[in-house]
Specification:
The chain is mainly beta. It has two helices and twelve strands; from the N terminus they run ββββββββββαβαβ.
Length: 129
């Protein structure tokens, strides 16, 4: 799918979920109200944690409750995907500090509701650090 949102991460906490009070809202029946959180430390490391969601988090075909993200990690969140991009890892030689980012990609929700699948059967979102 295509990126529909990008979120730059700074030290602190960002919550991902279905309701509007989240930092990254994914309006989908496959996402819990408060599905997971991203915690970025002052060292630049970002950890994703499941907030007792119904559909959980899957990384590399394994369900996880907590995972330290690395550049290129693809996290399955319900029928959606979060792509973590670490700009600092990608541009180590660059002296300009880049903020972490998160991007959200969404396929056609109506297609999923009707039993049809999008290009890859999943909706995607991206996260950048």
């Amino acid at each position: 799918g295509k990126a529909v949102m990008e979120l730059h991460l700074v030290p602190g906490r960002k919550v991902i979920g279905r309701t509007p009070d989240n930092d990254l809202q994914i309006d989908s029946k496959f996402i819990s109200r408060h599905h997971c959180q991203l915690v970025t430390g002052s060292d630049g490391l970002t950890v994703i944690e499941d907030l007792n969601s119904t559909n959980g988090l899957v990384i590399r075909d394994k369900r996880v409750r907590r995972h330290t993200l690395r550049d290129g990690d693809l996290v399955e969140v319900g029928q959606h995907q979060l792509l973590y991009v670490d700009d600092q890892a990608a541009h180590l030689a660059d002296t300009h500090d880049e903020l972490p980012r998160v991007s959200a990609n969404a396929a056609n929700e109506d297609a999923n509701d009707s039993g049809e699948e999008s290009d890859n059967g999943r909706e995607e979102a991206s996260v950048r650090n």
